[in-house]
Amino acid sequence: MAHFFGAVIRFDQQINRMLIRNEDLDLPFVSANPAAIAIIEQHLNDLIGDGVALSFEDAVLHAVMRCMKQGDVTLELVAARLGVGSRTLQRRLAAAGRTFREVVQEQRRGTAEVLLKDERIALGVVAGNLGYTDTATMSRAFKAWTGQSPRAYSKKGRRDAL
Predict the structure, then answer these.
(1) Contact 161, 154 (CB under 8 A)
(2) What is the CB neighbour count within 10 angstroms for residue 76?
(3) N- or C-end of the chain: fewer Cβ atoms within 10 A?
(4) What are the domain boundaries of the chain?
(5) CA 136 to CA 124: how far, in whole Å?
(6) For 84-96, what is each residue's pLDDT tens digit?
(7) Considering Cα of 58, then 68, then 98, then 79, what sign does the dihedral take?
């Protein structure tokens, strides 16, 4: 990984981040690894967005999605991504009539439904993208949300597409 990115890599950190020196921002990517460029560009887009101001709820959903992709969705990590305290996040969600758990489950369900429509994506990959460590936990949650197993949902979605 250090060779791939051309930088020091530290594992087991509380959050994932990439630090770029100011003087390196003006350097061209001409000789860089194309795969590394794509990852860096995506990371920078995630950080700066597309210039559109997000509502607080949309910002929460975006932060939850990013944490899911990294495998750990906690109130503390999402609050840190938003630059607020955990209690502040809870209060602002409560003012909107929501709980953190509801937001996370809603985001997981929506993502699962989209991913399961693609037959090429393995169940383990779907579970990982939702922040679950195993497929059994994800399958139980999905069945609670929809009343059917992920496989049955996936097969039904493919039949409906025909």
Answers:
(1) no
(2) 12
(3) C
(4) 1-52
(5) 9
(6) 999 999 999 999 9
(7) negative
Tokens standing for 154? 């996936």
Q: Which two tokens stand for residue 99?
A: 């709980």
- Residue 135 CA to residue 90 CA, distance in Å, equals 29
55 residue type, one letter? S
Region of poorest pLDDT, from 12-16, 27-31, 100-104 = 27-31
Mean pLDDT of 90-115: 93
Q: Which of 93-97, 118-122, 147-151 has the lowest mean pLDDT?
A: 118-122
> 135 versus 1: which is more confidently predicted?
135
3-state secondary structure the chain: CHHHHCCCCCCCCCCCCCCCCHHHCCCCCCCCCHHHHHHHHHHHHHHHCCCCCCCHHHHHHHHHHHHHHHCCCCHHHHHHHHCCCHHHHHHHHHHCCCCHHHHHHHHHHHHHHHHHCCCCCCHHHHHHHCCCCCHHHHHHHHHHHHCCCHHHHHHHHHHHHC
Give me the amino acid identity at 39. Answer: I
